[in-house]
Amino acid sequence: MTERFDEDGQLTHLLRLLPAPEPSAQFASAARRRYLAAIEARARREALTGLVAALVGLAAVAVSVATVTEPAGLVAWLAEAAADLARWTAGIGVVVALVPPAAWVSVVLGSAAMILWGGSWRGHAPSRPRNKPGARSYSRTKGERT
Hints:
Structural class: mainly alpha
Shape: elongated
Distance between the termini: 45 Å
Number of helices: 4
Largest sheet: none
């Protein structure tokens, strides 16, 4: 089946001449509700597809790691990673315990200020560099000058 385009607008004009009642408000709201439900279902399907793809990728990596390394090496690596995590957690606990709360407040407020103001210490966003008058400018295609 091929699509034919109404280039001269004749079909559109004829369709507008046909008498047709306006759809009721109930019909419009039900159609909108169905449309939104379909969009939500599509988003859920996309999210589920992405999750399944990620899990398949993770399983492929796990299988390849298991076939390349021996199980004892994998267990040793996991134990080392757990020990590193415990060491980092203990270190962070010591730093939190030693630094006074007033210092943490100033650090948190300073970080929040930098995030809110976009890290611009000048008070305005950086401007885009502009060409100097009389300077040559080139377009995106190779060799063309504008």
